[in-house]
Specification:
Length: 160
């Protein structure tokens, strides 16, 4: 059995996000957690806090954590398909996977937070359309990552 730690809130009573986040991830790594996850939201979700509470961008956050940890796997829980173009997400993920020595978990879903999308000017298609977008995104990402070497994925999209 494997265990991961998901960190949903950045409303610290501290002034230094870097040290607090680093300490939490290193604690998780040191105490045997297999993975560390952050949400891929642009503002706080209602079940955790208020939209105006601090929320660090997920991919930037796990990139920082990749540099300060050595073995714990890292991921977003989960990236909404409407937030980033699939080929750009594939490139971001491949880069982070290489720089973290293979420690990336890519979590991707159909997205659900219409309020957040509206606040950031991101179109929010119907549920059916978002699931079709997810299916397309999975095919694109798998196609771009369908190489024997992670380094080849960094060279470009559909290079044969």
């Amino acid at each position: 059995m494997k265990f991961g730690l998901q960190h949903p809130s950045f409303s610290y009573n501290f002034s230094n996000y870097q040290d607090t986040l680093k300490e939490l991830a290193l604690f998780a790594e040191r105490t045997g957690f297999d993975s560390f996850w952050v949400m891929d939201h642009f503002h706080q979700i209602s079940v955790v806090g208020k939209p105006y509470e601090p929320m660090l961008e997920g991919w930037t956050t796990i990139s920082f954590l990749a540099a300060v940890t050595t073995k714990i796997r890292l991921g977003t829980l989960v990236t909404g398909v409407i937030y980033r173009h699939p080929s750009v997400l594939a490139k971001i993920g491949a880069t982070l996977d290489v720089l973290s020595d293979g420690r990336l978990f890519l979590g991707i879903g159909a997205a659900w937070n219409e309020e957040e999308s509206s606040a950031y000017g991101i179109p929010f298609p119907s549920t059916g359309a978002r699931f079709l977008m997810l299916e397309d995104a999975l095919q694109i990402i798998r196609g771009m990552w369908n190489k024997n070497s992670r380094l080849l994925r960094l060279m470009g999209g559909f290079i044969s």
